[in-house]
Amino acid sequence: MAKPKVFIARKLPDEVVEKFKENMEITMWDSEEEPVDRTRLLQEAGQCDGLITMLTDRVDDELMDQGKKLKIIANMAVGYDNVDIQAADKHGIQITNTPDVLTETTADLTFTLLMAAARRIIEANEHIKEGKWENWSPLFMAGTDVHHKSIGIVGMGRIGQAVARRAKGFGMEILYHNRSRKEEAERELGASYHSFDDLLEKADYVVCLAPLTEETRGMFNQEAFKKMKSSAIFVNASRGALVDERALYEALVRGEVKAAGLDVFEKEPIDADHPLLGLDQVVCLPHIGSASTETRTAMMELCLENTWKVLNGEKPKTPVN
Ligand code: DGY
């Protein structure tokens, strides 16, 4: 019997893909850096039984409509705001994502951003490398303490809770806001539930980890930044579109918010002349939350396992719909 056809929308390491070739006929886009060409993706959707897509690919009705025998689209991210789930349901296509395997790595990066912004790590590093370090002085590169401060986590899912565990180790008071109460986190981490506004007013660190949905889009707007303490540090490791970047820029320039750590942006890659990149008090990263070799490999393997399971008539490990 002919093997099912699968197309991967980015070049993945051969050694990861190789072991799945026994069961599936796998082809890949030929670049690791450049997203797949839309025409090619549409064409592959029309011929394949399974697709593995990246968060940079638009998985919409047009794409799924091509799929004469398409059964599964495995999206290599925990977030799936690039996928039209209603359209997938309409076409009877299984969507999967990559939760769990990236939780701890993404929490590590989120906490790194928080600490880097608080302790001015990037500014200090640039200062020394540019040969500007001339002296020690009492308030030279003085940042803000992290330990025993309060952290307000917006989006208390798996990654939010993993960040809360790290915060607990730093003796921080943990506040959270979420669609539903997380009783386990309240019991085990001593986290307290707050309304969004209350959290903004009380937290020393406001950390955005909520998924991008129609309800959360733009929730960190001018009004939200105005409610934060002027000493607050804002961190976003979720999706850029939750934040009104102009409002954040203005809040930082006016001193309504002290600093920010951002791993995600409204437009990715962000333009090199974006005003936020010009601010010393902003630490910016190019969407690398889950980017450790171990975790990215686990995400690739999970996508391939999910794809094979569905094509073999089994339930996928991590279904979305
Ligand atoms: C995700 O999985 O959604 C992350 O943003 C990718 O690193």
From TrEMBL:
Residue stretches making up the D-isomer specific 2-hydroxyacid dehydrogenase catalytic domain: 6-321
Entry-linked CDD domains: GDH
PROSITE patterns: D_2_HYDROXYACID_DH_1, D_2_HYDROXYACID_DH_3
Keyword RNA-binding in annotation: no
Cross-referenced Pfam families: 2-Hacid_dh, 2-Hacid_dh_C
Keywords (A to Z) from UniProt: Oxidoreductase
InterPro entries (UniProt xref): D-isomer_2-hydroxyacid_DH, D-isomer_2_OHA_DH_cat_dom, D-isomer_DH_CS, D-isomer_DH_CS1, D-isomer_DH_NAD-bd, NAD(P)-bd_dom_sf
Stretches assigned to the D-isomer specific 2-hydroxyacid dehydrogenase NAD-binding domain: 112-289
Family listed: Belongs to the D-isomer specific 2-hydroxyacid dehydrogenase family.
PANTHER family per the UniProt record, alphabetical: 2-HYDROXYACID DEHYDROGENASE-RELATED, GLYOXYLATE_HYDROXYPYRUVATE REDUCTASE B
Protein name: D-glycerate dehydrogenase
Organism of derivation: Thalassobacillus devorans
